[in-house]
Amino acid sequence: MNDADWSGAYDHEGGDGHEEHGKKDEEHGKDEEPTYEHGDSSDSARPGPAGPPRIPLPRASVEDTGRPLPEVVRQQPLVLAHPVLKSLLGAWALAACSPEESLAVEAHLGECGACAEEALRLREAVGLLHPAESLDLDPALRTRVLEGCLERRPPRIPVPGWASAYDAETARLDALLQDFGDAEWHAPVRLRWFRADKATSRRTTVAGVIAHLLTVDGLVAVALGLDDPLGEVPAKRPTPASRTEAYWGAAHFPPTRSVRGPWREQSHDLVRTVSFTGGPAGALPVSYGDFELSLRDAMLDRAFECWVHAGDIADAVDYPYEPPSGRHLHDMIDLAARMLPTALARRREAGLCAPARGRSLRLEIEGSGGGEWVIPLEPAPALGIAPREVAHVALDGVEFCHLAAGHVPPEEAAAGQDGDRDAIRDVLFSVASLSRM
Amino acid sequence: MAKKDAPPRWDRKMQQRLARGEAAALGELYDRFASLVHGLAHTVLGDERGADAITRQVFAHVWEHPDAYDPKQGPLRSWVADLTHRFAVQRLRDTESAALARGGHGTPEDLERKVQRASVAARADYIVQAMPAPLRAALELAYFQRRDYRQTASDLGVTEDEARRRLRLGLQLLSTAHDVGAPPGYGGAV
């Protein structure tokens, strides 16, 4: 049979073909077996070269003709052309064709060695399909595998220690995004932070959060001389929030999953670039618009933000998400502790803090990544005078980070407190004031 | 079929970076291939700890011997999958032989059959991952979602003809997992 016949025979399976069967039954009644054989019905259904195009006659109901009704179940297999049968083998092996087609295929397998052989092969192949197992790799495995490798062959160009938290956190977030479908990418997320001692928030989507990370990580990229992900889009001010709003506003449509590639590429580029610039470059200034961080602190800050927003995303799609490793958590807490004196000073300038010259607060962080930090509340009047400890606050490390992320109101932070209440209040509010979009 | 986002250029560049001793490149290599490696190892060994161990072994091997990869022989992905397959099958053979030697159940023939089965299963997993996305999507619908080929066709927005073709071709590719003596590993499957 040539190709034209094949397609003709295939068309026969459509609605017209079935009608054709019915009509034949009516015309010939039950006294005669249907006569269509290989090719016969398809030929008659198509305009033959000899006769005029065949137009179906108007149908009459069998009940009205007085003739016997056809049997309800007809076991007569469909007769299909060889190429059609062959093309059905995959669907047949997967039990994905109609019962009539299955019967036709099976009848054919008894007669055609080549098809029988292929059918067997394909059936066996179906047995190899199985649902993909959950590929959630333990994030700690990445650290173990990489450390194991680097011990066996020390790197000539290592990733600086201060960039390892960013490396780990971006990898962890990327793994979370791995299996996201459109529903997850467009799930609503509410970004929360503190501004002027008040909880504030901004609605976006999972994709919008990744766009936010992309644009703010871009501050580090710019400081390193890499391309700005914002491109030609003008931001009102070079701050994280302003850049993010500019990026969101520049597109006609909300961000989609397509933002993942650029975000991941940039995060890989940052790790790679800081590896080449090396340890001394850690002091390079990175501007956040309103303030500046050294490159090493900016990378820690970005690691922290990556974790916090990964948590926002995980909450939005109802996935569990663990805190960073103890070592990385410790570095993040340390950064916040080091930023606290400036935050306290800013609040004092705004008249929100009581004077506390020469006093300090002991911050005790419990749990993995914990430690103790002495926070000077206000610089001593003269150098060399040790500040006097007036209060002691104890907090779990993850709780402290939630507070610093603006996810927990300072009044509600579960903190053990002892000593000067004003000092404690000022410090907890200052921790919350570290948060931003 | 090579992934569109992983042109040979990426492979060659990655190899150079690894050879240069760039730790950041090792991280990127892991990010791209860890789930492939871990998944294949898990298919062969059927246990998490074994899969973790193979993952360590594979990345250590690539990191220590980046020059062993020859871009002319195929994509880096195939090479990594091939290494994984070989290490995992070796580990399975070792642990099973040790169990047998300690007086465990079964015969050396059983062991061989088990190794063979695991090996075919891993190759099948790789083929499914590496096959063109339209074929994989058709198999996914027909097998996992139990759609017949007509529904599959309409879900995919293709003709019924095309749906049957994809299902058959997908299974044909998959069936090559049984071909013992195929060129070592995955070169033929991609």
UniProtKB/TrEMBL annotation, chain B:
Location of the RNA polymerase sigma factor 70 region 4 type domain: 127-173
Keyword entries, A-Z: Sigma factor, Transcription, Transcription regulation
Stored InterPro entries: RNA_pol_sigma-70-like, RNA_pol_sigma-70_dom, RNA_pol_sigma70_r2, RNA_pol_sigma70_r4_t2, RNA_pol_sigma_r2, RNA_pol_sigma_r3/r4-like, WH-like_DNA-bd_sf
A Pfam family matched in the record: Sigma70_r4_2
Coiled coil spans: none
Domain of life: Bacteria
SUPFAM superfamilies: Sigma2 domain of RNA polymerase sigma factors (SSF88946), Sigma3 and sigma4 domains of RNA polymerase sigma factors (SSF88659)
Keyword Transferase: no
Ranges of residues in domain RNA polymerase sigma-70 region: 29-95
PANTHER family xrefs: RNA POLYMERASE ECF-TYPE SIGMA FACTO (PTHR43133), RNA POLYMERASE SIGMA FACTOR SIGZ (PTHR43133:SF62)
Entry similarity comment: Belongs to the sigma-70 factor family. ECF subfamily.
Protein name: Sigma-70 family RNA polymerase sigma factor
